[in-house]
Design a protein that fits this description.
It is a single chain. The chain is an alpha/beta fold. It has 3 domains: 127 residues, 3-Layer(aba) Sandwich (Rossmann fold), CATH 3.40.50.720; 173 residues, Dihydrodipicolinate Reductase, domain 2 (2-Layer Sandwich), CATH 3.30.360; 82 residues, Alpha-Beta Plaits, CATH 3.30.70. The protein is built from 14 helices and 17 strands. The strands form 2 sheets. Strands 7, 8, 9, 10, 11, 12, 13, 14, 15, 16 and 17 form an 11-stranded mixed sheet that branches. It has a 6-stranded parallel sheet with strand order 3-2-1-4-5-6, sandwiched between helices. A hairpin with a 3-residue loop joins strand 11 and strand 12. It starts with 5 loop residues before the first strand and ends with a strand. The model has no long low-confidence stretch (mean pLDDT 93).
């Protein structure tokens, strides 16, 4: 074993950065054995030097400006745990790569938005980001390396633990979204401003990264269709149970003859599907390849320990001299595959309406569906309340998204429809 340590500069000492320091201290012998040399943090950057983070920073060089950390001649590898697609995180990574220093980052937003430019800047300098997607689950290595011999047709998953916790609790306890969100914030599972998570943006960043790796094309966050979970109600979970489904926020990337579709939205999935049983704060990633078939990875998708585990795994690869191009292939080998718009999606749908219970209402609704070439598979109505609003649930056979959207616009204008219709797409697995 080489006795010269691989030296790290860690920028950002929040949950992830502090977790990296703790892991390297607690598992120093294991890391050194697997890296072939000791790994030591020698410099850090964070905003508040006085804050107690539960880790020992004594003796480390401290930089108020994270970009200055990249210029430290004593730092071999820069670890970016600041977060965000712009600002200090972007400036730090660019500075480190320009200096020829390997970078390990947990920053999915940075990679999703600027991944193509970052890869070009990196060239043959390692830019590693296992921690950017699904925390401790080795999803990046699985797609980029473990499944490299396959033509992948689909990658999907539960990519946000906050949403999965909220949806799981709503199903198990029959509670409404706002109530469970407030509890998740108190427990620390949701941020004070949770919009990044509950509106699907976080999952969309991760899906953009997975799609680029799975299909060998430049990362394209702007093409991802994004919907969150704000509109899902306790009633939808009751209806889903009756229909044999569970509701999950999924990110789905799929190769079709027309190109690549990428979408994040709530889905009805069969109760027997493996992904339907991934609950709480856990994440899951499912990949389908022509030779390997279906591969399912499941584990903790966030938190200090799992994310630090992924960061340090990348550090070990760098220590061993293992190098893989950022997106799995050289930039010139990435294919400019077109993106398929959401309007072209074809699938089955769950549609919940709140309608006035009076004769002729269902006929009006089904007439609109018929006019848009949408055929019904089933209809559920719970109880009767003449003259009052009652829920009616319709499920459809396969139809095109554009047709369903046109139908919903007309249905929403019907006098008997009292609330905005709720649409949830049905996924086979």
């Amino acid at each position: 074993m080489s006795m010269r340590p691989l030296t790290l500069g860690v920028a950002g000492l929040g949950t992830v950065g502090a977790g990296v320091l703790k892991l390297l201290a607690d598992n120093a012998d294991v890391v050194a054995a697997r890296a072939g040399r000791p790994v030591a943090v020698v410099a850090v950057s964070a905003r508040d030097r006085a804050r107690d983070r539960g880790v020992n920073t004594a003796g480390l060089r401290w930089y108020d400006d994270p970009v200055a950390l990249a210029g430290d001649a004593g730092v071999d590898v820069v670890v970016e745990c600041i977060g965000g697609s712009e600002g200090p995180a972007k400036a730090l990574v660019e500075a480190a790569l320009r200096a020829g220093k390997p970078v390990v980052t947990a920053n999915k937003a940075l990679l999703a938005v600027h991944g193509a430019a970052m890869a070009e800047l990196a060239g043959s300098t390692p830019l590693a980001f296992e921690a950017a997607v699904a925390g401790g689950i080795p999803a990046i290595k699985a797609l980029r390396e473990g499944l490299a011999a396959n033509n992948l047709s689909r990658v999907a998953g539960i990519l946000n633990g906050t949403c999965n916790y909220i949806l799981t609790t709503m199903r198990e306890q029959g509670r409404e979204f706002a109530d469970v969100l407030a509890e998740a914030q108190k427990l620390g599972y949701a941020e004070a401003d949770p919009s990044f998570d509950i509106d699907g943006v976080d999952a969309a960043h991760k899906l953009a990264i997975l799609a680029a790796l799975a299909f060998g094309r430049p990362v394209d966050f702007t093409s991802v269709h994004v919907e969150g979970i704000r509109e899902v109600s306790a009633l939808d979970f009751q209806m889903a149970e009756d229909l044999g489904y569970r509701i999950k926020l999924l990110g789905i990337a799929q190769r079709t003859e027309a190109g690549i579709s990428t979408r994040v939205h709530p889905c009805m999935v069969p109760q027997a599907a493996p992904i339907a049983r991934v609950d709480g704060v856990f994440n899951a990633v499912v990949a389908e390849g022509d030779f390997v078939g279906r591969v399912v990875l499941q584990g903790r998708g966030a938190g200090a320990g799992p994310t630090a585990s992924a960061v340090v795994a990348d550090v070990i690869d760098i220590a061993r001299g293992r190098f893989t191009p950022v997106w799995g292939s050289a930039a010139g080998a990435l294919a400019a595959v077109p993106s398929v718009p959401m309007s072209a999606h074809t699938g089955c749908y769950y549609l919940r309406l709140m309608v006035v219970d009076r004769p002729g209402v269902i006929a009006d609704v089904t007439g609109v569906l018929r006019d848009n070439s949408i055929s019904l598979e089933s209809m559920l109505q719970r109880g009767r309340a003449p003259g009052e609003a009652v829920p009616v649930v319709l499920t459809t056979h396969e139809c095109q998204e554009a047709a369903m959207r046109a139908a919903i616009t007309r249905i929403e204008d019907l006098a008997a429809v009292m609330e905005k219709p709720v649409l949830i797409r049905i996924e086979p697995a």
